[in-house]
Amino acid sequence: MAPRLPLLLAVIAGLFLTPPAFALNVQRLEPEEIATLEALLTALEPALAAKKQDGSAILLTWEALYEPLSSEPRAFLDQFRALKAEGLGATSHYFGEAGAPSDIVPVGPQHTLKHGELTPLDPQYLPREVFDAYQRMMDAMHAALGKRLLVESGYRAPAYQLYLFLFYLPKHGHSVTETNRFVALPGYSEHGYPPRQAIDFINEEGINGEDHPEEFEALPEYQWLQQHAAEFGFFLSYPRGNATNTAFEPWHWHYESSDKQQATRSTPTP
Ligand SMILES: [Zn+2]
Fold first, then answer.
1. Of 93, 134, 141, 221, which is most buried, counting CB atoms within 10 Å of its CB?
2. What is the spatial distance between Cα 270 and Cα 251, in angstroms, rounded to a whole number?
3. Burial of 164 by CB count in 10 Å (0-12 exposed, 13-18 middle, 19+ buried)?
4. Distance (Å) from CA 200 to ligand 1 centroid
5. What's the topology of domain 24-264?
């Protein structure tokens, strides 16, 4: 039994010496946490502004997110990366995280045309296979309806997802639990998980349904998707009354490659 004693002591010491990985006040950040958050957002602002300008913000790497920060905000970021949505009273599903795939391709340039006004959409990216499937699907939709759907949101790097979460924290009273109801943590979004790559669609007149899902639901484009999207490997992630209790999102579809579908078709969509 003797050899186990040092190990046991090391484990006990570790319990006391290692700072808890989860020390944030998730209901509402403490004043010093808010100060660190503000310093962090200020430090990130120039780099993010430049990346938004050239359209690469959405592909943000972890290295680029940490690079402009000193040690204190880096440790603060680490705490957020360690957060688990399951501990925040959410029903979020953990998909996994993946950096931008090597075969990612830009979508567009894309524009909506509303009341005769041409509005550019922010640059978007999709993995090659998903982009090709999307194009095939839109060619078929166009042949049937004379309409296409545009990609309002495609791939979002996990580091960008975390940046968005931090950016929206002040707008939700610095409450992590409240922010989590509106912005997914890294790993909890199909947008950051290429094996189930999500697309948020917007129609050519700028109807995206985010504010008025019933408007998107009434579109002929949506009716067409319901009948034909599966033929192209696209599936509605959050139908009405879905098991995860996530709000109905008629605009949010994800792609599954055909070999993946055979493996997972029998399992219910999380
Ligand atoms: Zn979405």
1. 134
2. 17
3. buried
4. 5
5. Muramoyl-pentapeptide Carboxypeptidase; domain 2 (3.30.1380)
For residue 9, give Cα distances in angstroms to 3, 21, 81: 11, 21, 29
SS percent in the chain: helix, strand, coil, step 5: 45, 15, 40
Q: Coil, strand, or helix at residue 166?
A: helix
Distance 194 CA to ligand 1 centre (A): 13
Tens of pLDDT, residue by residue over 38-83, are: 999 999 999 999 998 888 999 999 999 999 999 999 999 999 998 8
- CA dist., res. 260 & res. 30, Å (int): 44
| Ligand 1 center–CA 53 separation, angstroms | 22
Query: What pLDDT digit, counting tens, does each position of 192-213 carry?
Result: 999 999 999 999 999 998 777 8
**Separation between Cα atoms, residue 126 and residue 156, nearest integer Å:** 9
User: Cα of 30 to ligand 1 centre, how many Å?
Assistant: 31
Ligand 1 midpoint to CA 32 (Å): 33
